[in-house]
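Quick question, first post here. What does this chain look like in 3D?
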Amino acid sequence: MTDPSASAAARRPGEQALTALGLAAPDPDPADASPHSFPGGGRWRTEIPSCEGPEALAVVLKESSRLDVPIHRISQGSGVWMLTDAEITEMVEATAERDIELCLFTGPRGTWDIGGSTRTDSGGAGLRARGHAAVAGCVEDAVRASELGVKCLLVADEGVLWTLHRARAAGLLPPETTLKLSALVGPVNPASYAVYERLGADSINVPSDLTPNHLTEIRRVSAAPMDMYIEAPDDLGGYVRMYEVAELIRRGAPLYLKFGLSKAPGIYPYGHHLRELTLATAKERVRRGRLALDLLARHGADGDMAPLGTRLPGTLNRFEISS
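> Answer (accepted):
Ran it through. C-alpha cells below.
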C-alpha cells in the first residue's frame, strides 16, 4: 500500500514565504491522512467529465496529447439514450485504443421529465428516476451500453444503482462493469457514503464543497474510490479548489481528480445545436487539468498517481443480495 505520509511532505502553497513572515500553518496531522489507495498502486486518478460525444472525445484526446495530461477516465453526462449505437461504438474504440475508461450516464432523470416539483425551489425528487418506466429506461441504457462495450455506467438514483448491482451479480451485465454515482446526488457524510458503497457503487462522487475534515471522516469508514470536481460546474457550485488538490488527495485517496469548468453554460442534454460550446469547453477542461497537474508538480505532490489504464476499485463492502 502507498505510504500516505508521502504527500504530507509536499510543499504547501506559499509555505516558505509565510514561514519567513511568521505566518506558518501548523504541520499536517498524520492521523488525518487516508490510509487507502487504488488496487495496483497509486492514490489518485484523473477524469475529464462532460465529454458528450465522439467529436468532443476527439478534442479531449488531441488536447490531452498536446498538453501531456494523463487521463484514466472520460465521462459523459447527457446519457446513453442521447447517443446512437455508432457514436457509442466510436467512443468505445477511441478510448480502448488509449486504455482509458469510458463512463456513460444511464437513462431518463427527473429533471427532464414531467415532474414539475423538480423546478421548484426545493428541487423535488431531483435527478432520481421517477416511476417504474424511468428505472426501466436506465436498465435499458445499461444493457445497451454494455453490449456495445461500455464498462462504466453513471447513475443518479439509489434504486437504479441497486438494480444494476443486482443485474451485474446475476450476470445480466458483465462482471467487470463498474457503477459510478453522480455528483448531483453525492453523499455528504460518512454514513451515506458507506450506504452507496453497499448498494453497489464502485466510484462515488461527493459534492465539491466538502471540507478536508469531511473527507477524513469518510475515509474512516470506507475505502471506495471517491470522485471530486477540482473545478466544479456552476450548477454544482462553481468551486475552484486547485490549491487544495494535494491536501484533498492526502485526505480523500483513492481519489479521482475531476477537471470540470466553471462559468460555462450547461450542455445537458447535448445536441448538435450546442456543438461549438461543447467542443470549446471540452478543450478547456483538459487545459484546466494541465494547470492542476502543474501546480501539484510545483509543490512536489505529483507522485502516487495510479498507473494509466487501471480502472477497477478493489474489494468493496456490499449489502447481501437475497435470492
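The two ends are 36 Å apart (CA to CA).
The beta strands are 44-48, 73-75, 101-105, 152-155, 178-181, 203-205, 226-231, 255-259.
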